[in-house]
Write a structure and sequence with these properties.
Blueprint: H1 5-19, E1 24-29, H2 33-37, E2 56-62, E3 65-70, E4 74-79, E5 84-89, E6 100-104, E7 109-114, E8 119-124, H3 132-137, H4 152-159, H5 166-170, H6 182-192, H7 205-224, E9 262-266, E10 269-273
Antiparallel strand pairs: 1-6, 2-3, 3-4, 4-8, 5-7, 6-7, 9-10
Length: 279
């Protein structure tokens, strides 16, 4: 299950509530050779020794990234945006498969497992920007859909001169907004009734308003419904939001007009759309 902005916020809030103040007594990494080889996890497992006896000060998120800050200037950075599971266990009797396990002084356990692409990184406070995902999503110069200043006026100014296709403007390292991944992008554009191959600079004022409103709506609804329906939170509880557009619509018809949903290649991936509703 992918962890995007709403799911990262849900996890971070739950983790902060449950883990803040706990001290690490031990750690264990397993089955992580592939992750280490492709740079998704620290190559030297001994680096996790920095966690021993460290106390969690806070857990925060921005975009699709979660930061666990410890009292010894060390941070765990989780970026499971293409698939990951972060779970809390009251004891060690029901611990599932994991790539990283952290045990605390009260007998509780944290497990993290990447099910697809993502990162599990350890960074010192003064070295946080060496983490690509942290630098990308915690950049204060980029807007987040949950920021108070995510206004239409500011959003419109960010995209008005963008001659790139909307996916490049909204998704990826050079996006104007953090926290929108490919699956969220498809849902948003369907809600806004905009074709994925449109360029940002081509949008008229009405379309820009629809796009801005759709971003806020999708993020807000996913937060309200505790994440997507293929997401499980820190306690293993399933989310309740079903995307209106995306891979779940394969071989389906549009709920608005009954037209067959199409799949098209775009920006190194695939997107689903309604060819009649999205123009």
């Amino acid at each position: 299950m992918s962890v995007e902005l709403p799911e990262a916020m849900i996890l971070a809030e739950q983790m902060n509530h449950k883990l803040k103040g706990k001290r690490v007594t031990s750690w264990l990494v397993k089955d992580c050779e592939r992750l280490q080889k492709i740079g998704m996890m620290d190559k030297d497992p001994k680096s996790f020794n920095q966690l021993l006896d460290a106390k969690i000060e806070s857990v925060t998120s921005r975009g699709n990234v979660i930061r666990v800050k410890f009292d010894n200037n060390t941070n765990l950075i989780f970026g499971p945006e293409y698939g990951g599971e972060i779970f809390y266990h009251v004891d060690d009797k029901t611990v599932p498969k994991f790539h990283l396990r952290v045990d605390f002084n009260d007998g509780t356990v944290l497990t993290v497992r990447l099910t697809s692409m993502g990162v599990i990184e350890l960074r010192k406070d003064n070295d946080l920007n060496s983490s690509y995902v942290y630098k990308r999503d915690f950049d204060p110069n980029k807007l987040s859909p949950v920021d108070e200043d995510f206004t239409f006026e500011r959003f419109s100014k960010l995209i008005v001169d963008q001659s790139r296709m909307l996916k490049a403007v909204l998704v990826g390292k050079d996006a104007a907004v953090v926290g929108i991944s490919n699956s969220t992008f498809q849902d948003i554009l369907y809600m806004a009734k905009i074709h994925p191959k449109r360029k940002a600079s081509e949008l008229d004022i009405t379309e820009k308003h629809r796009l801005h409103d759709a971003i806020k709506f999708v993020v807000t609804e996913r937060l309200k419904l505790k994440g997507k329906d293929n997401f499980r939170d820190f306690y293993g509880i399933k989310g309740g939001y079903t995307a209106a557009m995306g891979p779940n619509m394969k071989e389906q018809t549009c709920s608005e007009c009954g037209t067959s949903i199409e799949k098209l290649s775009l920006g190194g991936g695939h997107v689903y759309l309604c060819p009649k509703c999205q123009t």
